[in-house]
Amino acid sequence: MPRTKLIAANWKMYKIPDQARDFFQAFVPLVADHTRDEIVVCPPAIDLSAALEAAKGSKVAVGGQNLHWEKEGAYTGEISASMLLAAGCTHVIIGHSERRQYFGETDDTVNLKLKAALEAGLIPIVCVGEVLEEREANLTEDVLRRQCLRAFHAISAKKAAKMVVAYEPVWAIGTGKTATPQLASEAHSLIRGEAAKAFGQPFADAMRILYGGSVKPENAKALMSQEEIDGALVGGASLDPKSFAAIVKY
Ligand code: PEP
User: Fold this and answer.
1) What is the pTM of this model?
2) Which structural domains are found in the chain, ordered by start?
3) Which of 10, 103, 133, 200 is deepest in the core (most CB within 10 A)?
4) Annotated catalytic, 168?
């Protein structure tokens, strides 16, 4: 069974609600006839309601950039899976390298968040990837294995069914440096192998693995034509409707 590609936008901490509305007004018509791939936009939490309203009636889904693993509680500033779901989100990004780097996200919190997202019925996009020092020290495989093993810990194949993984080499995020299609494919194969160990080969064969790291309209086709690459997680180039539409339609 061919895997339907997922093209995901990560807006990070950009755009106020009015700008989110403007984006959707321009973007939705550009992809109105695009049925080949799934599309999701993950704006900052403050923009979710504007984005969901503006995306209504289109095929563009809306997701969160983060969540807390508890259902509710005294966790100032946090948002739970059920809150994202109630708002109308279908997806959520988990373990983005910026959260690991700046906000103390660990392999263990990624695991807790993944369980919470799956439990709630959200489609989690779990980010893994090595930093430059790890790649240069030949540690990429070890890092990806550890991140997958710990993210997938104590989760059943049945529960994990909707899970998507994003391979995002940290040295390629926001730097303009892109992994070559071959390098990305190798990492994706390794991640698929880890998913096979954790959940079985049929699960791994069906699981989507996105590539993220300076995806642009100019390099999207070369990356997306790789059999191992099942879509993209796009940061900077997803902020502009024309540029993100060009990536979607690569
Ligand atoms: C990201 O934020 O996940 C990302 C891949 O960013 P960029 O496309 O800007 O490298």
Assistant:
1) 0.97
2) 6-249 (3.20.20.70)
3) 10
4) yes
